[in-house]
Amino acid sequence: MEKELDKVVEEIMSTPNVNGCLVADHQGLCLASKGSAHVDSAGIIVAISEQACKIQPNLKPPTVCLETDNKICLIQRHGTITGAIFKQKGAA
């Protein structure tokens, strides 16, 4: 499974403007981290996703978008796994 996860992370990292990727389990344990994503942020990323799920608990988990002037962090939960993609804002 670790090789499959590494393959997915590498594929995400090859996407234009992506400069970081993190995958964590339901307890906030970092399973994979690459680029600008910090291992220490795994717990807070999972917590943000869990809180967002409480807004409409009967629907599938929402995608959370955190945005600054020049960066975007997308957080998505799928089952017990939560992923975060860090992107640099740029032209197309």
TrEMBL record:
Its main location: cytoplasm. Pfam families: LAMTOR5. Keywords: Cytoplasm, Lysosome. InterPro entries: LAMTOR5. It comes from the Eukaryota. One of its GO terms (cellular component) is Ragulator complex. The keyword Transport does not apply. GO terms for molecular function: guanyl-nucleotide exchange factor activity. It is found in: Cytoplasm; Lysosome. One of its GO terms (biological process) is cellular response to amino acid stimulus. The keyword Cytoplasm applies. PANTHER family: RAGULATOR COMPLEX PROTEIN LAMTOR5 (PTHR13342). Belongs to the LAMTOR5 family. This is Late endosomal/lysosomal adaptor and MAPK and MTOR activator 5. It comes from Danaus plexippus plexippus.
